[in-house]
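Reply to dn_fold:

You asked what the input looked like. This is it:
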Amino acid sequence: MKKRFALTLATGFVAALIATQTLHAADAVNELSAEEKSHGWRLLFDGKSLNGWHLYAKKSPPEAGWKVEDGLLKKVAKQRGGDIVTDQTFGDFDLRWEWRVAAGGNNGVKYLVTEQRTSAPGHEYQMIDDVGHPDGKLGAKRQTAAFYDVLPPAADKQLKPVGEWNSSRILVQGNHVEHWLNGKKVLEYDLGSDAVKAAVAASKFKNSAGFGTKINGHIMLTDHQDECWFRNLKIRELPAK
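and this is what came back:
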């Protein structure tokens, strides 16, 4: 009887240990699994530093408005840090990240970014408090997951409440681009297409030569001086299509 009781306790202890380890693995941030690594994924943010990033068009390190805190990349409110870009450029890729903004906050991830076109450096995946920020009230083309000011996301997108984590994805392969939000594709378009040219012509970027066409470019995190957090920034380069 004692042996059976001891065996039961030991089995329970092992089960609890496995459950705890599984929980910790699920909660792990800024880490890649062996399978992800084997498929070519790599981190753009290691959770400890801003290695691999520089100030846009300056080549100098990010400033104090960007802070690494508790494994998260934080854009500090009301403290100018400047837009930051990856040192490397990308052409065809799958980019994924998690983010949250403060109430009334605004930020964005830009891609196909060039440091030679400062007025419209790249296409922006909008990240904003749709209801609480003035820009979000101007319509769907300025709300979360839009191709900012150019194309709106699907009307039935699933955006988490302000302060909760959202997961996003940008896929670029050949001229085809997709925006995803919380596991669902909410926008797709083709670079250089007539539809995109018409949408750009109707946007604030209408006088920006080359905007809306395919280039190899940086990834940018924007600075709107609102509080915003990032984690699990990872990218996988894809074969050209």
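The longest strand covers residues 228-237.
Hope that clears it up.
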